[in-house]
Every structure is written in C-alpha cells, then in structure tokens.
Amino acid sequence: MTRWLTDEEQRAWRRYLDMNAKLTARLHRRLQTDSGLSLADFDVLVQLTDRAVPRMRVGELAEALQWERSRLSHHLARMQKRGLVSRQDCPEDARGAFVLLTDKGRHAIEQAAPAHVEAVRDLVFDHLSKAEVATLAGISERVLGRLNRSDGEESTPG
C-alpha cells in the first residue's frame, strides 16, 4: 500500500526540490560569470584539491561526485582541453587512469573559491540563524546516513 506524503511533507519536499534547482542554477550562473568555471568544473576541482596528493582514480572520482562514468569521462575531456586537469595511466591497472589537478586548475579554483563562498553565504547562510544552520546540518546528515546505509540500492519500507 502506498504511503502518500502528507500535505506538510509534500509541501516540504516540493520546496526542497524547488530550492535545490534554483540554488544550483544561481550558483552555476554566478560561478560561470565570476570565474568561467561551471559548477561541475568546480565540483571536480574541489574533489582534487581536498586531497594531500591532488589526484584520484577516475572511478573514485565518479563515485565521489555521484556521476556516471561516461558523463565524467566527457566532462574530464573538456576540462583537459582547457588545461584544468590531466590524465595519467595507472601502472597497476592497464584499464585504469588517474585524474590530476594541473597548476592551471589549482589557480582556477583558488581564484574562483572566494566569490563562490561569498555567493553561498549570500544565498544561504546569511539568512539563517545558528540554530537553523545546525538543523540543516542535522537533517542533511540523517538523510545522507540513510542513503549511505542503503549503499545506492533502493529498499522497501518495512
């Protein structure tokens, strides 16, 4: 039997979806205008700069971004043409490859990050109280915990 959303749950869900779509679009436009990077470029560069050694296996990067490998491969090819990343064959796995952050990629994210953080502050955090930020973090952690437990597989309620 279907457990339909209550009116309040449906309102919350639809507002979340609308907020997510509009926030993502606005952040993308600002980032593109300020730095020439897309939000997808920025996400890839963040994954690489968050590591002591700025390189990742392609599959690991796809998993971290929750992207299909084909989408990542096409996007990395575009980023590589712009000199933001490079690829390196993996000596242990002939089919595997590493994605490496280039100096140009590091410079690009270092230049883009301050304006991006300011945009996130302006659009989200400057309008929330400390309690609301804590609530947002708590909700996000609970939902992510549930998603991580399901390991990407749909489960049936019960």
Automatic annotation (TrEMBL):
Cross-referenced SMART domains: HTH_MARR
A GO molecular-function annotation: DNA-binding transcription factor activity
SUPFAM superfamilies: Winged helix' DNA-binding domain (SSF46785)
Pfam families: MarR_2
Domain HTH marR-type: residue ranges: 1-145
Entry-linked InterPro entries: HTH_MarR-typ, MarR/SlyA-like, WH-like_DNA-bd_sf, WH_DNA-bd_sf
GO biological process: response to stress
PANTHER family: MARR FAMILY REGULATORY PROTEIN (PTHR33164:SF99), TRANSCRIPTIONAL REGULATOR, MARR FAMILY (PTHR33164)
Protein name (database record): Transcriptional regulator
